[in-house]
Design the sequence.
């Protein structure tokens, strides 16, 4: 090994250690948690019907039926994507973490299938949420706004 190669190794080893210490792996508190067995989910998102308001930051969808969803205390999510009914699982974590998975839908054909898919994609890609009064906003893992929902009366 040359002197130049030795200096490079001495510089790379601490840099690698520093980078590994700063890894982006989430800690246990930031991961969404399922409802504990015998336990229940709670919070402002749970046991509330949410009607679709916007996709992205400003796009309103015109569909025959307003898309909506609700999360029950057992962590089950159910709703309608504007075309088909869906069900799945929701997990909530600290710092407004949310994870919606295992969505399954009925398979009715509709003229707005692409828009209905955008609704379920928004749910499946939700990473965090923010509630402001009667509005719920979903953000993706990159902090991009996925869409907004309004509390149903």
Sequence:
């Amino acid at each position: 090994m040359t002197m130049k190669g030795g200096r490079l190794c001495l510089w790379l080893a601490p840099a690698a250690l520093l980078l590994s210490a700063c890894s982006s792996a989430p800690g246990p508190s930031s991961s969404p948690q399922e409802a504990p067995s015998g336990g229940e989910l709670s919070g402002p998102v749970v046991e509330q019907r949410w009607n679709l308001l916007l996709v992205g930051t400003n796009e309103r969808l015109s569909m025959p039926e307003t898309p909506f969803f609700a999360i029950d205390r057992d962590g089950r999510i159910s709703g309608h994507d504007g075309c088909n009914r869906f069900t799945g699982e929701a997990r909530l974590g600290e710092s407004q973490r949310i994870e919606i998975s295992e969505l399954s839908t009925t398979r009715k054909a509709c003229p707005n299938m692409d828009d209905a898919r955008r609704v379920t994609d928004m749910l499946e890609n939700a990473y965090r949420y923010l509630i402001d009064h009667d509005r719920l906003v979903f953000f993706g893992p990159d902090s991009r706004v996925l869409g907004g929902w309004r509390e149903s009366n």
